[in-house]
Amino acid sequence: MSLWIFYADCASLADVRVLVADDERVLADMVAEGLRRLSMAVDVVYDGDAALEKLGVNRYDVAVLDRDMPGRTGDDVCRWIAGSDTGTRVLLLTAAAGIRDRVEGLGLGADDYLTKPFAFAELVARLQALSRRSVTALPPVLERDGIVLDVTRHSAARDGLTLSLSPKEFAVLHVLMRAGDRVVSAEDLLEQAWDENADPFTNTVRTTVMTLRRKLGDPPVIHTVPRVGYRLGL
After folding, report:
1. How many whole angstroms separate alpha carbon 193 and alpha carbon 173?
2. pLDDT tens figures, 163-184
3. Are residues 25 and 57 in the same domain?
4. Are residues 208 and 128 in the same domain?
């Protein structure tokens, strides 16, 4: 299945954390890479047992589950999520396209259903809809201190000048703008803007904040609060 990545007219998926579980490894990895390019934090597993392990220790906004994985199936994982209080939304994937199959899948507690093969654009649209149900709705355009973050078009500007931000820089700025006057810890940034493969003992957060601060220009708008985290504001 061919995948295509798009950014324009795409509601922001920054800060959305997704679990992709599919035993078709090439497909799972391609989907994950595409979603990461849209600033999402994505973890990938290839069987139901691994999916349940991840769900037991991490909070996900959406789980994309293949129904036909070996061992514990996507159906089993869906039932577990439906009976939990995680708040995770479920999108089931399957090659079975019959009405009975879709009804059965939704009856397991799934929030949505997508048949293979599928267009990547449709998958993203469905994830957008599901993620909006799992988080408090935010305005599509955030503005503060001369910064305009258009989460619909995945674009940012300061004082009218367009900023060229990487997906992670965009995600970090989104988290900071959502926080208002609150200080955001490095741990919270790591949790919301990266996936679990990020090493908490590296300087990845500090480095990303440093490059983001440089791109935002003067006067400095991201402030370091020693031993606490980062705060946005003049």
Report:
1. 10
2. 999 988 998 998 898 888 889 8
3. yes
4. no
Q: Is residue 200 part of a domain?
A: yes
Check if the beta carbon of residue 16 is closer than 8 Å to that of residue 127.
yes
State residue 115 phi and psi, 5-degree precision: -95, 150
Q: What pLDDT sits at residue 14?
A: 60
Range of the domain at 86: 17-134
Give the sheet arrangement for strand 147-150, strand by strand: 141-144, 147-150, 155-158, 161-163
Q: How many angstroms separate the CA atoms of 48 and 70, rounded?
A: 7
Residue in this structure with the two tokens 């973050």, named with its chain if needed:
149
> Rounded CA gap, 29 and 44, in Å?
7
pTM of the model: 0.58
pLDDT digits (tens, 9 = 90+) for 149-164: 987 778 899 999 999 9
Residues 105 and 174 in one domain: no
Beta bridge partners of 62: 18, 89
Do 64 and 129 sit in the same domain of this protein? yes
Boundary-marking domain end, from 75, 102, 134: 134
Which residues lie below 8 Å from residue 51, measured CB to CB, with a gap of 6+?
A: 19, 21, 45, 63, 65, 69, 72, 74, 77
